[in-house]
Design brief:
alpha/beta; Gyrase A, domain 2; Four Helix Bundle (Hemerythrin (Met), subunit A); Rossmann fold; seven-stranded mixed β-sheet; 14 strands; 46% helix; binds guanosine-5'-diphosphate
Length: 453
Amino acid sequence: MQYLRLHGIGGIGIIRMSGKDTFNILNKIFIQKNKKDLKDIPGYSMKYGHIINPNTNELIDEVLVSYFKSPKSYTTEDMCEINAHGGNIVIRKILETCIENGAKLANPGEFTKRAFLNGRIDLSQAESVIDIINSKTESETSASLKQLQGFLSKRIESVRQKLINIMVDIEANIDYPEYDLEEVSYNKTLNELNDIYNNLKQLENSFDNGKIIKEGLKVAIIGKPNAGKSSLLNSILKEERAIVTEYEGTTRDTIEEFVEIDGIPIKIIDTAGIRNATDEIEKIGIKKSLEMAEEADLIIAIFDITKKLDKEDIEILDLIKNKKNIIVLNKIDLIKVNVEIPKEIKDNKNIIKISALNKEGIEDLYNKIAELFRFNEIKNDNSLLITNIRHKENIKEANKNIKEAIKTLEDNMPIDIISINIKNALENLGYITGENVSESIINEIFKKFCLGK
Ligand code: GDP
């Protein structure tokens, strides 16, 4: 069965074919300039020639064809890539010719799915392919590349191996009780389980940083009308240090702006717009911003420094006190003397004075955000970061089982009781690499892929 795929319009259009009939089909439709037998064409080489319709001898395009011979190919099957001119008509015609000669159209993610099913990569590596394609920033790409190279797979595999060794020890205890391994095993197993727990916990925790890299830090700017929300947003978006990227915001009726500060993606939930809809009742407006800000990782509460804080400001302060927040005192350009911090917020550690209008203090605001979310650590962290919620959930589940096993041992229960927890943890971890994962989950994962990958 053949699989082929059409790429988007560009200077070059590539059609990929994979499967055992690839070269038979190619031979029918591809006339090489210097004709060589397939056996004389090494894998990873290119041939120049023309694609024709073998029934009509019609010339379709002048192309270069790459040959990949099984098992050394993306899918591990025989593969070729026809590099044609990028126009839609030409590509479509080549595609049709391939199909007329025995190929079948590929589904999204089909090539990567085959690479996984044929055992070249595991599931976590396959998932990283889509992450690389969808990456919005360099840090996200680098985290995904690490995953593609198999760093996560290796780490999970080494933990699994340790768990298997524990299982073997336990079995030995059951099978040869006369050896009295019990005492030694207890302590040894307990130590090993604690190591595994810490190892997995560290991986699980890395998701917080991984999530920031992947989804961006969600920041909401809130404040009363005229405090300067729009002006602040504008100065962030026009700032040189922040690269504005087009991003489709989808959450309810908020607008989301996507910027990248020092390589870290930041998604700004712009609640400024809602003021218009709720002009009559200002208070509801603020409540609504807060509702919208609920999913934010950080709230920037902006106040007009030229005005005394009123009841409503106090209410805002009260409502955000349980969230990570930065208090921004705006319009300092209007204050001639030293800016006095209102007593109600004096105790807050994260106060930044700015002039959104003159772009004064914006740098301080960035630095504060970077400090609060440890951007330096994220950027310089060369260890493995989990960026996929499916991986995190399975690691968490596995660690729950490890914790239970530890508790069982600490309670001096018979050692063989923990084998059920160990088995469960092994299964949880296996889901990450795709060992015992169900077909429906596999289909779900590959559905998210783009065509041609
Ligand atoms: P929003 O309603 O919170 O979005 O506030 P805007 O950003 O629309 O600002 C309200 C008014 O305050 C506008 O007339 C702005 O020009 C003005 N404004 C905002 N920031 C500053 C500032 O830093 N200094 C001064 N002097 N005016 C500002």
